Amino acid sequence: MTGAAGYIGSHTALELLSAGHDVVSFDNYANSSPASLARVARLTGKAAEIVEGDLRDAPALERLLGNGAYDAVVHFAGLKAVGESVEKPLLYYDNNVSGSANLLRAMQAGGCRKLVFSSSATVYGAPERCPITESFPLSAVNPYGRTKLIIEDICRDLAASEPGWNIALLRYFNPVGAHESGEIGEDPSGIPNNLMPFVMQTAVGKHDSVKVFGTDYPTPDGTGIRDYIHVVDLAKAHSAALERIDSFKGAEPVNLGTGKGRSVLEVLAAASKAVGREIPRTLSPRRPGDAAECWADPSRAKEKLGWTAERDLDAMCRDHWRWQSKNPSGYR
Ligand code: UD1
After folding, report:
1. What is the whole-number distance in angstroms between the Cα of residue 224 and the centre of ligand 1?
2. For the chain, how long is the longest CA-to-CA vector?
């Protein structure tokens, strides 16, 4: 598992270890900490094998995967800040795209052709309507999004060039929440760009108020609508994808969302309820590049994976808040 120490990686590692799998973590901790995996080991009573390494180090990947000992690779590692990707596109292409090409080359050399890839709803660009199905046109609106799209394209080209690849391209909508123990969760470095971590950091007093980006969208309350999905549901979807990876012929995409769109004001209301007091907000102009609505048609996930999201927005906020209040400074 690349990026196993990160937010979605650590929750998926917990899920896989609990299901009896052996997990080897490959992570450079660029945006995470090995502390998350130590907590996963404590929670499951079973430790992942830890390898510290960087996807840009192709020989390290070849040494790791060269022994043919792996059934499958789950690939989370990558940079994911949209703004930073605009300022430092080469950093993003190098880490995300070249790193993924190195990984695929090492898998090919080691004879492992089963991959679960951490893609994103960002590959739908500015969607024309909702709900979004996997057959919608793909495009990128920033360098980060383009790296996800290019990696998907590389997977499709590779699978077309050579039989035997089974690749699940899992397109996440908006992951939020935390494990119900409150021991692992999202630990963004710097000021978070995403709504839920910003809301929860505001609740612990790290920010004065949440800016509501845009109140004049053509939506029922005027604020942006997204498909928030509990990270534990997301982790379970990875477990299901691994169990059924042989049914992925070549590279096939699957949306991971709940199929329910929620507005920024609905998130603030649910978060205020979970926290037990009103979270301060400031009505603000739109953030450039944001779509009014983005939510999934999750029916292919049900067909292909036998999986549906089970946790609702209240559970997402309750669990995110438990993590945030127990760990106001994350893993530090
Ligand atoms: C963002 C990224 C997207 C990435 C995804 C997951 C942008 C433009 N898009 O998506 O590429 O795949 O995160 O990491 O950065 N909002 C506020 N106030 C805030 C923050 C957000 O009102 O302080 C609103 C946004 O306008 C949006 C919703 O909350 O309507 C969700 O925002 P966010 O969590 O940043 O996710 P996305 O914009 O969906």
Report:
1. 9
2. 56
Per-residue pLDDT of the chain (332 residues; tens, 9 = 90+): 999 999 999 999 999 999 999 999 999 999 999 999 999 999 999 999 999 999 999 999 999 999 889 999 999 999 999 999 999 999 999 999 999 999 999 999 999 999 999 999 999 999 999 999 999 999 999 999 999 999 999 999 999 999 999 999 999 999 999 999 999 999 998 899 999 999 999 999 999 999 999 999 999 999 999 999 999 999 999 999 999 999 999 999 999 999 999 999 999 999 999 999 999 999 999 999 899 999 999 999 999 999 999 999 999 999 999 999 999 999 98
Domains in the chain: boundaries: 7-326
251 contacts 28 by C-beta, under 8 angstroms: no
The set of protein residues with a Cβ atom below 6 angstroms from ligand 1 is 80, 82, 120, 122, 144-145, 174, 193-195, 198, 210-214, 224, 226, 264, 287, 289-290, 294
Domain 7-326: CATH architecture, name and number where available: 3-Layer(aba) Sandwich (3.40)
- Listed residue (107, 125, 153, 124) closest to 245, CA to CA: 107
* Gap from CA of 128 to ligand 1 centroid (Å): 18
CA dihedral 245, 248, 252, 255 (to 10 degrees): -50
* Dihedrals phi, psi of 37, to nearest 5 degrees: -75, -30
Q: How many CB atoms lie within 10 A of CB 170?
A: 21
Residue 70 CB burial class (10 angstroms; 0-12, 13-18, ≥19): middle
